[in-house]
Amino acid sequence: MSTYGTRLLSKGMQGADVEELQIRLAGFRGTLPDGEFGPGTELQVAKFQVDVMGRSAPSGIADSSTLKAIDSFADQFLIDFSRLKCRCGMCDGFGQGKFRGKYLGNRKTEEFHLYEYPGIHRMLLWAVRAAHFYMPKHPFTFSSGYRCSVNNQQNHRNTTNHCGKAVDLDIKPKPGETRQDDVLKCREVRGKLVELSNAQIGWEARNRKSLEPDSMAPTWVHYDVRSYEAKYLDDRYFCKDLVTLNARTPILF
Ligand SMILES: [Zn+2]
Ligand SMILES: [Zn+2]
Q1: Residues 149, 114: contact at Cβ < 8 Å?
Q2: How far is the CA of 169 from the centre of ligand 2 (A)?
Q3: Which of 189, 159, 153 is nearest to 171 (CA)?
Q4: Which ligand is nearest the CA of 169, by number?
Q5: Quick one: pLDDT at residue 31?
Q6: Distances in Å between the alpha carbon of 210 and those of 58, 108, 200, 226?
Q7: What gap in Å lies between CA 169 and CA 124, rounded to an integer?
Q8: Could you tell me the distance, in angstroms and rounded to a whole number, from the CA of residue 177 to the centre of ligand 2?
Q9: Sorting pLDDT into bands at 50, 70 and 90, what band is 223?
Q10: Does 1 score more than 80 pLDDT?
């Protein structure tokens, strides 16, 4: 009934298509995929209309031209899944679905959840698109994507974020740039993602995209969805390829 692309979306509406809109606009202020079109979603739509579509009087209503502009935005910022795949040589690139509900040590929080999620969270990748859009001067590449339990073992690592909930962005240095230049650029990027995409540095607030502080990630930008509640980390939010990330459906109204 509420297939994305079959109706205009505005404040007060709800449904699977609203959820899909919230996912796609994850990098524009950002909210949760709760399927309720409230003031947060309206703000997201308005930001997209001003920043991407260049509208001076945004309506905050996801009309057909807005949905089409979101499709074009996706096509402009393709995500290179070959760079996101796990390099362990044992899994298909996105883990083997092992360890759901298993935790490292005694604390049953997402930080220690060992589950190999089935791909990378779609909201995170849509948010990366916005990072590309807002910061064209920084040629981002993925320096780290999926790292399954085998990969962790191979590298004597015990962190679990990169089992689908995190990506690392690296900025290619320009000739003559020092490590300190890189550190400053990464700081600037974090500031922009807090300002424009509603991310946080650290993990204290729930349901916000997170960035590792520069004490942990000085010369790269680690971006993750670890602080999302379990219901927003459901398997259906994860993708292994561009087609599933885009979930393209025709705009029919
Ligand atoms: Zn692997
Ligand atoms: Zn990382």
Answers
A1: yes
A2: 8
A3: 189
A4: 2
A5: 86
A6: 28, 19, 5, 7
A7: 12
A8: 23
A9: very high
A10: no
Q: What is the pLDDT of residues 193-221, one digit of tens each?
A: 999 999 999 999 999 999 999 999 999 99
Instruction: Supply the DSSP string of 103-147, one letter for each residue.
Output: BSSS--SGGGB----SSEEHHHHHHHHHHHHH-TTS-EEEEE---
Query: Which bound ligand lies closest to the C-alpha atom of 124?
Result: 2
Give dist(CA 41, CA 26) in Å, integer. 10
Radius of gyration of the chain (CA): 18
Give the other-Cβ count within 10 Å of 128's Cβ.
24
Ligand with an atom nearest the CA of residue 116: 1
Rounded distance from Cα 195 to ligand 2 centre (Å): 20
175-to-137, 138, 172, 178, 179 alpha-carbon distances in Å: 15, 14, 10, 9, 12
Q: Which ligand is nearest to the CA of 163?
A: 1
Q: Which two tokens stand for residue 33?
A: 């995929």
Based on DSSP, count helices (H) and strands (E) in the chain, helices before strands.
Answer: 7, 7
Cβ partners under 8 Å of residue 213, min gap 6: 201, 202
